[in-house]
From TrEMBL:
MF terms (GO), sorted A to Z: serine-type peptidase activity
Domain of life according to the entry: Bacteria
Family in the record: Belongs to the peptidase S51 family.
Protein name: Peptidase S51
A single GO BP: proteolysis
Keywords: Hydrolase, Protease, Serine protease
Keyword Protease on entry: yes
UniProt cross-references to InterPro entries, sorted A to Z: Class_I_gatase-like (IPR029062), Peptidase_S51 (IPR005320)
Length: 208
């Protein structure tokens, strides 16, 4: 049973998440917090914002950089903790490091077995069958060791985060123009999220 929450900016849609998972369900839960995708970025405020939001929900946050951690630590945290959270950043670098570490296989197994997954921007796009479409948003040069662009394939659609939001307006528009007729795209703004419970997929929107 899948239990997945995909968004563009987690700290902005916390009310949607606490409708998806109640405060009582979250209290005391352990979160494997993976900021690896952000390591290539100059702007990373969303990492602290996401972490703070989880802590304010009384979650126990354990940070895990899969690009530097040992496989024993990676497997232990991913399998033992209650929730997996992957932040935004460079999707290609993220995929490269997921593969290098073997975390891709562990995450896929855990999520397909029902573990709650939160994917923010890159963390949402990485679940798609393929991330070729992300070339119009992220720089692939940060992933020189990436041999192919096959994503985790946990979902059968392609999340397009930051729809209508600065500074990604043009990039998102180009993705939609190029791939809308060939891929099942799901664009979401910073005030939206995609919630998946087993086979039910819903697009949620935060009221102004």
């Amino acid at each position: 049973m899948k239990h997945i929450f995909l968004c563009s900016s987690f700290s902005q849609v916390v009310p949607l998440f606490t409708d998806f998972v109640t405060a009582e369900e979250l209290k005391g839960k352990t979160v494997t917090f993976i900021p690896t995708a952000s390591l290539t970025e100059k702007v990373t405020f969303y990492v602290k914002a996401g972490k703070k939001a989880l802590e304010e929900m009384e979650c126990i946050v354990e940070e895990l950089d899969i690009s530097s951690a040992h496989i024993e630590e990676i497997e232990s945290k991913l399998r033992t903790n209650d929730i997996i959270y992957i932040t935004g950043g460079n999707t290609f670098f993220l995929l490269q490091e997921l593969r290098k570490s073997g975390a891709d296989r562990v995450i896929t197994s855990e999520v397909l077995n029902g573990k709650t997954y939160i994917g923010e921007s890159a963390g949402a796009m990485i679940l798609s069958p393929d991330i070729e479409y992300v070339r119009l948003m992220d720089d692939i040069e940060y992933a020189p060791d990436l041999s192919n662009l096959e994503g985790l394939g946990i979902v059968d659609f392609y999340t397009v985060p930051h729809h209508t939001n600065f500074p990604f307006v043009k990039a998102v528009r180009k993705i939609i123009q190029k791939y809308d007729s060939s891929l099942p795209l799901r664009p979401i703004s910073n005030l939206q999220a995609i919630a998946i419970r087993d086979k039910k997929i819903s697009t949620l929107t935060l009221e102004d």
